[in-house]
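Workshop exercise sheet. Pairs work together: one partner reads the sequence aloud, the other fills in the structure field after running the prediction. Swap roles for the next sheet.
Pair: D.N. / O.F.
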Amino acid sequence: MLHYIPQSSKINPVYIIGAGGIINAAHLPAYKIAGFNVQGIYDIDNAKAIATAANFNVPHVFTSVADMVAHAPANAIFDVAVPGSQTIALLNELPQGATVLLQKPMGENYSEAKKILQLTQQKKMLAGINFQLRYAPYILAAKELINKNLLGELNDIEVNVNVYTPWHIWDFLQAAPRVEILYHSIHYIDLVRNLLGNPNSMYAKTTKHPSMPQLASVRSNIIMDYGDMIRANILTNHCHNYGTPKQQSYIKIEGSKGAVIINFGALINYPRGEADSFEYILLEEGAVPQWQQMQIEGSWFPHAFIGSMDQMMLAAEGKIVTPDNSVEDCVHTMACMEAAYESSERGGVVPPL
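Structure field:
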C-alpha cells in the first residue's frame, strides 16, 4: 500500500508562514517527497526562516508577511503554521481570494473557529485545515477496505494512546489553558468524524497529572455518541513514564464483516518513534478467521501532510469543488472539541445515596 499519491498537477507555488518544528519535521519533508513547488518562507524569527530555507532549498526568504504577499502570484497557496491564537490576525494580512492551508487547531476554541470560518468566507478564500491524520498512509489503507465494503458496516472505533509525551519541548503549551484535547486528541476526534460523520453528542473527562502540575489536562477519556449500535471511544494517557515496553498507541476499526488494528509508532519514545503495523481480518463464511498484515509505505509524519496540501491544490485547480479538509467541514471538529471540554467541566452524574 503506497502513501498518499498527489492527484494535483503540483504547479501552484507554496509560500510558508512559520519555520518551527512542524514545518521542518513534517511539512517540508512531505512536500519534498510529493514534489510540491515551495517558493518562499517567512518567520517572525528571520534566522529560523533562513536556516529552514537553506535546509530545504527554498528560494525566497521574506522579512514580513506583506513582502511575501507582494511577491506571491495569484495562484499561490499560503501554508500557515502559527499558534492558533495568531491565525485570525494573520488571515487579515493575506489577500482577498487567497488559497490558504491553516495548521490545526482552527483557533484556540470554537468561538475562534467560527470567526476564522466567517473571515475566510468574507474574504472569499479557499481555506482548509491541516487535520492530516485523515491522510496518513495506514488510514488511507483502512479507508480503501471500508470503501470496498470489505469491513461491512462500521460499528466500533477505538483510539488508545498510552505513552510518555515530553510536553516541555513546546514552550507555548506551558501556559496554555487547554492542552490534550485541543492539541492532540483533536486529531482522533477529526478522524472519527471523517469516518462516521458528526456525532449526536460528546462525553468527556480530561485530567491533569501530578508529574506535570504546571500543565493543563494531559489525559483524556472521550466518548463520541453515535447512538446505540456504534461505539467510538478515545482514551489517552501521555504520562506513562515507565519505559517503552508497555507504551502503546493504536486505532481499532471494527465492522460487520472485518476489522483493522493500526499500531502507530510515532508517539512511542517520542520524538524518535517506533515502527507502525497494519493488521486486518476479513470474515468469510465457513472459514476460520485469520489476521493478516499489510505492508504500508510511509507514516503519519511526514507523509500524511502530502494529503492536506494536495486537497488544497486540487480545489485551487478546479479538479474538485471543495477540499476534503475545508474550513466548512473542520469547524465541526472544533465544535466536537468544544463539546468535549464542556462535558468535562460539567462533570458526571453523582450516584444517589
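Discussion prompt: The two ends are 56 Å apart (CA to CA). What would you look at next?
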